[in-house]
Amino acid sequence: MEKNVVVAEIEEIDWGGSRAEDGDTVNKTKTLSSNVHDGLPNPLTDPVKCSFIKGDYLYFHYGCDGQDDRGWGCGYRTVQMMASWLCRNYFPFKDKHRAPPSLHEMQQALVTMGDKPASFSCSREWIGTFEASLILDCYYNVPCKLVHVRGGGAELEHVAVEELHRHFEKHGSPVMMGGDRDNSSKGILGVCTGDNGSYLLVVDPHYYGGPLEKTELQKRGWVAWKRVSSLDQSSFYNLCMPQTANKGT
């Protein structure tokens, strides 16, 4: 596995003061785990090709900032993970203390730009890869490539896998993945291909609870390699890929 520079495993993040969002009080500072895939063995002993993200990020998940967003917030949490990568690795946002936007701030941004009605703000409505691309462009001036994979089977195995290999080799940024029947947002941090199929390195934002060390997250399956053929073969999938090549320092 490609070695990343590892920052502190548990890191504090400053949200810039207390907020009351969705009826819940958000504490000013929360601790988040970082680089949670580090040390996870490759799924294949003799892979044909493996590609990974490059750089540091924080693991965002349900309730990590004090807001209980179980059942609807997975897309926002994946965007926050992607934003944390941009804050640490993408010029001019290489400031690890810069907090990614909160759930409410992302909702309000989508309302302000005209993508969502006013009722969307402070709601429990989820977002997908298209909204993720709008948010990252709005906050970080980073365009995203959206790839639509019509279904499972051969198209998912070949189209998505090849797109991911190219993306990680050129851009090195985390990817958001979601679909229709399989509508759970996933962070994709790597792809490993062998003679008999490929695996995706998935960071799952659906964990709810206090900060866990990376070894425990891996043990519980919140960070894991998932065989592409194990994904819902009847679902379409979309990929949101931040285009960050040649923009860093």
Automatic annotation (TrEMBL):
Gene3D superfamilies noted in UniProt: 3.90.70.130
Keyword ATP-binding belongs to the record: no
Residues passing through the membrane, by range: none
An example Gene Ontology biological process: proteolysis
Organism: Anoplopoma fimbria (Sablefish)
Keyword set includes Hydrolase: yes
Similarity comment text for this entry: Belongs to the peptidase C78 family.
InterPro entries named in the record: Papain-like_cys_pep_sf, UFSP1/2_DUB_cat
SUPFAM superfamilies: Cysteine proteinases
Pfam family, any one: Peptidase_C78
Recorded superkingdom: Eukaryota
Keywords: Hydrolase, Protease
GO-annotated molecular function: deUFMylase activity
Name of the gene encoding the protein in the UniProt record: UFSP1
Protein name: Ufm1-specific protease 1
